[in-house]
Amino acid sequence: MIFTKIDGNIKEREDLGHVHVESAIVKSDDLAKSILRVKSDHHNEYGIRLEEGKLENGSFFFIDDHHVLVLNVIPEEMIVITPKDMDDCGIIAHMLGNMHKPVKVKGGKISLLYDPVVAKNLEKSNVEFKVEEIQLEESLRYVDLS
């Protein structure tokens, strides 16, 4: 079966108690794809070929009136940086931009997938950071300046 349309997000629907849920585990990178093949916890294989929309943690697809497939993102090791001030933020943003790393900036924190080269560069530059297991809700993106 190939899905071409996201039917919703499981977190926004409370009326799905009557359906059987199959789960497919994906990596956060997979959320950026419009074409994807997944295997459910019931060992069924499904294809996803989106014509519009973007995948998120919890995106679901109706298999039939009584079954849905839900995408669940694997928690991944992430580098989380909390810049001390605007100067620190600018330096860190410049460094990460030069490494061409997609990031998430939210709540005064900069997060990106763990990379030993990035960690080493941050340590060399005396930038404080933490490594945490985080389940992303959407894929990391490159900053769009257009």
Description of the molecule:
It contains two helices and eleven strands. The protein is α+β, with helices and mostly antiparallel strands and 146 residues long. The protein folds into two domains: 2-73, Urease metallochaperone UreE, N-terminal domain (HSP40/DNAj peptide-binding domain, Sandwich); 76-134, Alpha-Beta Plaits (2-Layer Sandwich), CATH 3.30.70. The chain has a four-stranded mixed beta sheet, with no helix packed on it. The N and C termini lie far apart (37 Å).
Number of strands: 11
The spatial strand order of the largest sheet comes to 2-6-7-3
The helix/strand class is alpha+beta
CATH homologous superfamily classification of the largest domain: Urease metallochaperone UreE, N-terminal domain
Largest sheet: 4 strands, mixed
Mean pLDDT: 91
| Parts with pLDDT < 50 across at least 5 consecutive residues | none
The helix fraction, in percent, is 10-25%
Number of domains: 2
At CATH's second level, what is the architecture of the largest domain? Sandwich
Strand percentage, roughly?
35-45%
Q: Provide a count of the helices.
A: 2
Straight-line N-to-C gap: 37 Å
Order of helices and strands: EEEEEEEEHEEHE
The CATH topology of the largest domain corresponds to: HSP40/DNAj peptide-binding domain
Outline? elongated
CATH class of the largest domain: Mainly Beta
Rounded to the nearest angstrom, the radius of gyration is 18 Å
